[in-house]
Design a protein that fits this description.
Helices cover 24% and strands 24% of the residues. The protein contains 16 helices and 29 strands. The strands form 7 sheets. The chain has a 7-stranded mixed beta sheet, sandwiched between helices. It has a 5-stranded mixed beta sheet with strand order 9-17-16-15-10, sandwiched between helices. It has a 5-stranded mixed beta sheet with strand order 18-19-27-28-29, with helices on both faces. Strand 21 (456-459), helix 12 and strand 22 form a beta-alpha-beta unit. The protein is globular. It binds dioxothiomolybdenum(VI) ion (MOS).
Length: 737
């Protein structure tokens, strides 16, 4: 029976995307359209004294310029539905004169053409009373605060007695690992097209959360939520920066309502570096005590990171040390410094990706110190239960990931001595690290409709940010309805469909998938009920238990030759469709199990002994994420995550000018991300065992786990090749000189 769930079918949206038929937000055009271009602050701290827009307003086609002088009040969103709907930056735009970072919105030019808007934006003169900005967290530690909680869990985390265990430890290590500011850089920049018809507001957005966007916009403008609709049919990547709602969306909405015309606000690549979040830098000091045999008795994970003056965000790097290994004595401590930089936000595996770089590098260092194989060291510290809560794992296959990965990679042939392995003139390095991401779920809902032409449709206000949701959701319905997936269409990315959570925290499959399954079951039940009440049906007065769906037919279980197509049943009863709708809430009333995904990554690098160029030669990634819905889109997600991890390891770093606070490399030629030539062969395999307790499908998410551990695996391989330990990302060749 398990036929369509898991099948490596092609993406439902693949042809549309490669032929350019898929309409992304900026592709929507309307009669009488107005273009909006944001005016951004070029200084990082101060007060706007005057905005002189007289020259800008003389440009033909310029209609008006919104600034704090003429923008009405916005209102904060009321939170509901799982994750709170909120702005990425708590402060609402254009409400006052204070400047908190370079790139802050000071206004929006509205014009008849994009060219007029862009030209006018350059002519707006902003007079600012400047103050010296605070830009470096290490130099401003005296201003740091210690957050009291992280997602409702109290901080700092204290387990056992770190001081005592550390003082008694045979082996002690203390190292500092640093990671820079990184930017999400999805291929598709953010865009917002607002259409106001005098009563209803429709927004064409690029968002990871149509429901959240609707709620925030409606609340901000004091519109009833049912009068606001968000369309986001296709999203060209997000990685977290499209999870919450940023100022351009409120400004396009407001402008459309004021001007009574459709308004398109487009962000350029440059805008993406200041106005839609980033991963904050971290400085992580790890202090470890262990026995000579490799059992870690004490660990302190002290993270220094930053947020802005107008938003709260914590990069939870210490979660890696809290949730992965059996560390009986633990301290997880944070210090957050407010800087005059934009507000940080979630970026793929927020916390885990930075935290595991530190922890999995440190474990590698310990393995050399103790002369223990790195895999064996991890097994010695394996947590039989969730180390923080003590709950049993619902399903944990970390040991299998390590074992399969080691076999595929050929780990047993590794000579552990640094610099001992060669390929031609180059030093060969092999490194490994563990991957980890918690299993998250939220309430989700969906509707499934069976149609008279023997097709079906799935409707849910979730969204496909490139992950494969269009495809996997129809596979789930196909499984239940026993219809081939090509007979089913998914309709997503529209806030008027049944509500679904943010596509963040790797939870779309786990939250929406079970709702699609339940909705399809209900739709099928309605079909069966209709048939057995229908005098003209073969199944009139049959017991529902004797019937089943099979390839678009309803059949007798005992005699499949007795069959009626879904369409016959609907047509005979004059039904345009039969539907089922379901709302599924994660229910775990007594918290019996801990849900977490695990994995193992292996990297091979080649380092030139003289030039120190680093070439990644191959990688292996093994992941345990529960049941796989579609092997093809899942592999693509895991490979994508690993490639982003390669970027983190070797290339990515946002550079700020320390005088002005502006981003120096706010473009894709200076902000380096991996290109095809940088990416080696990546071999991905899944354990593919259903999680028995997480949800009805046994599926945990996999959007984020791929990036976790990658940077450490590569750093560990570089050490193995060279004997040089780089604790500061990215690992660029000058650091090896
Ligand atoms: Mo993800 S960083 O939760 O979009």
């Amino acid at each position: 029976m398990n036929h369509w769930i898991g099948a490596p079918i092609d993406r439902a949206d693949g042809i549309l995307k490669v032929t350019g038929e898929a309409s992304y937000a900026a592709d929507f055009n309307f009669e009488n359209l107005i273009y909006g271009i944001p005016i951004l602050s070029t200084c990082a701290k101060g007060k706007v004294v005057k905005i002189d827009d007289s020259d800008a307003l003389k440009i033909p086609g310029v209609l008006t310029i919104l600034t704090s002088q003429n923008t009405p009040e916005f209102f904060p969103a009321k939170s509901d539905f799982g994750t709170a709907s909120q702005m990425g930056e708590i402060r609402l735009p254009l409400q006052d004169e204070t400047i908190h970072y370079a790139g802050q919105y000071l206004g929006v030019v509205l014009a008849e053409t994009l060219e007029s808007a862009e030209e006018a934006e350059k002519l707006v003169k902003v007079l600012v009373e400047e103050e010296p900005p605070i830009l470096e967290m290490e130099k401003n530690l005296s201003q740091a605060y210690s957050p009291k909680a992280f997602f409702g869990e109290p901080l700092p985390v204290i387990r056992g007695n770190f001081e005592k265990a550390f003082s008694e430890a045979e082996i002690k290590l203390e190292e500092i690992y640093t990671t820079p500011v990184e930017h999400h850089n999805p291929m598709e920049p953010h865009a917002s097209i607002a259409v106001w018809d005098g009563e209803n507001l429709t927004l064409y957005e690029s968002t990871q959360w149509v429901v959240g966007a609707r709620n925030v916009v409606a609340d901000a403008l004091k519109l009833p939520r049912e009068k606001v609709k968000i369309i986001s049919w296709f999203v060209g990547g997000g990685f977290g920066c499209k999870g919450f709602i940023w100022p351009h969306t409120l400004l396009s909405s407001l402008a459309a309502m004021q001007m009574k015309r459709p308004v398109k606000v487009l962000l350029s690549r440059r805008h993406l570096f200041t106005t839609v979040g980033h991963r904050p830098a971290t400085c992580q000091k790890l202090t470890l005590g262990a026995s000579r045999s490799g059992k870690i008795s004490a660990l302190k994970h002290h993270t220094i990171t930053h947020t802005s003056f107008v938003g709260e965000f914590l990069e939870g790097s210490g979660g890696a040390s809290q949730n992965l290994y059996d560390f009986p004595n633990l301290q997880v401590i944070y210090q957050v410094v407010r800087l005059n930089k934009g507000t940080p936000t979630f970026m793929r595996a927020p916390g885990e990706s930075t935290g595991l770089f530190a922890l999995e590098s440190l474990l590698d260092e310990l393995s050399y110190k103790l002369k223990i194989d790195p895999i064996e060291l991890r097994l010695k510290n394996y947590a039989e239960r969730h180390p923080e809560t003590g709950l049993p794992w619902s399903s944990s296959n970390l040991k299998e990931c390590l074992q399969i990965g080691a076999e595929k990679f050929g780990w047993k042939n590794r000579n552990p001595d640094p610099g001992s392995m060669k390929q031609g003139n180059l030093s060969l390095g092999w490194g490994m690290a563990v991957s980890m991401f918690p299993g998250f779920r939220s309430p989700g809902s969906a509707r499934v409709k069976i149609l008279p032409d023997n097709t079906a449709r799935v409707e849910s206000a979730t969204q496909d940010m490139g992950t494969g949701t269009y495809t996997t959701m129809k596979q789930i319905a196909a499984e239940i309805l026993s219809l081939p997936p090509e007979k089913i269409n998914s309709f997503l990315g529209d806030s008027s469909y049944p509500a679904a959570p943010i596509s963040g925290g790797s939870m779309t499959s786990a939250s929406v998938g079970p709702a699609v399954e339940a909705a399809a079951k209900k739709a099928l039940q309605h079909l069966i009920d209709t048939a057995i009440k229908d005098k003209a049906s073969l199944f009139y007065r049959c017991s529902p238990d004797d019937l089943q769906a099979k390839n678009g037919n309803l059949i007798f279980k005992t005699d499949p030759s007795k069959a009626e197509t879904f369409g016959e049943i609907l047509l005979r009863n004059n039904l345009p469709f039969l539907e089922g709708e379901a709302f599924i809430k994660p229910d775990q009333p007594d918290k019996k199990y801990a849900f977490q995904s695990h994995g193992a990554q292996f990297a091979e690098v080649l380092v030139d002994p003289y030039l120190k160029t680093i070439r990644l030669n191959r990688m292996v990634g093994i992941f345990d994420v529960g049941k796989i819905l579609n092997l093809k889109t899942a592999r693509s997600q895991a490979i994508g995550g690993m490639i982003m991890g390669i970027g983190m390891a070797l290339y990515e770093k946002t550079v700020y000018d320390l005088t002005t606070g502006r981003v120096v490399n706010d473009n894709l030629s200076d902000y380096l991300i991996p290109v095809m030539a940088d990416i080696p062969s990546i071999d991905v395999e899944f354990i593919d065992k259903p999680d028995p307790y997480f949800n009805s499908l046994g599926v945990r998410g996999l959007g984020e786990i791929g990036i976790t551990g990658t940077a450490a695996a590569i750093a560990n391989a570089v050490y193995h090749a060279t004997g040089i330990r780089i604790r500061d990302l990215p690992i660029t060749l000058e650091k090896l000189l």
